[in-house]
Design goal:
This protein is α+β, with helices and mostly antiparallel strands and 268 residues long. Helices cover 23% and strands 36% of the residues.
């Protein structure tokens, strides 16, 4: 009798252990990365799979396969957050990252706590579904006023050759006057100099407030009131600060140290 009770007890315990382990394994395996046909893909808990989005920093293409050439990460500075893969970053577009949709502005920075068309993004930058705009005359007037202000303060963007680069601009009179020049499109022929910078003539002089500074890679400065200088190295001289390109020194060298370039400034 004792042996029968013991055997039943052992069977019961083993059954419980099996249920716990099986249930845990099934739940853990309900969502995650899968491998088949020599490639990787990501399956969601509802049986669907990721497409044209980032999962944990890994890009899944439009066919659902992981593409190692486009691994990406979040970055931030004093201006804001942006997402970057190599030298590429999203500009004026939506991007799905870890199941959330984010919108990035004309400078490549993530938008937050604002409307992007009919879609609202919260403080984290993620799109909040089912948020509806209030359709009142008061809000319409405010929106018209805000749109007017936005038009008056369009963002200035920089292209080096055919590549758009993320720039944080200074808030000073020199940048305001540079923006006026850029309003009709400003193209500057740059020349390499000293093994650490590219310099080009603006075509006219603008306000200057020179100070003795030591520049770093990415710094954009005004020299002698009429020359645009972009650094991929460092130098100590008297300049007026204009802004900074938010790229690594290696990325800047790839863009600027292989010959003369053309820089275009415009408003968006």
């Amino acid at each position: 009798m004792y042996k029968k009770i013991l055997a039943l007890t052992i069977l019961l315990v083993m059954g419980c252990i099996y249920v716990v382990i099986y249930g845990f394994t099934s739940e853990a395996a309900s969502e995650g990365w899968r491998q088949s046909n020599g490639g990787w893909w990501y399956e969601f808990s509802d049986g669907s799979y990721a497409m044209s989005e980032y999962i944990e920093g890994f890009w899944v293409d439009s066919d659902g396969w992981y593409d190692s050439a486009w691994n990406g990460s979040w970055y931030c500075n004093s201006t804001g957050w942006w997402f970057q893969s190599g030298s590429w970053y999203p500009v004026n577009e939506w991007l799905k990252i870890d199941k959330q949709w984010y919108h990035f502005n004309s400078l490549g920075y993530m938008d937050a706590e604002c409307w992007i068309g009919d879609y609202y993004v919260g403080s984290s930058g993620a799109w909040i579904p089912n948020m509806a705009k209030e359709n009142t005359s008061s809000n319409s007037n405010k929106e018209a006023s805000n749109n007017s202000k936005e038009k008056e303060s369009n963002n200035m963007v920089m292209d080096i050759g055919d590549e758009r680069v993320p720039v944080s601009w200074e808030d000073n009179e020199s940048v305001k006057e540079l923006k006026e020049l850029a309003s009709s499109g400003l193209s500057v022929s740059m020349s390499m100099y000293g093994g650490f910078e590219q310099v080009g003539y603006l075509g006219q002089s603008i306000t200057r407030n020179d100070k003795q500074i030591t520049t770093e890679a990415g710094d954009i400065v005004l020299y002698s009131g009429n020359q645009l200088v972009v650094f991929y190295g460092s130098n100590s001289w008297s300049y007026t600060r204009l802004g900074k390109i938010n790229l690594s020194q290696d990325e800047l060298k790839d863009l600027l140290s292989n010959g003369d370039v053309r820089i275009t400034l415009s408003l968006e």
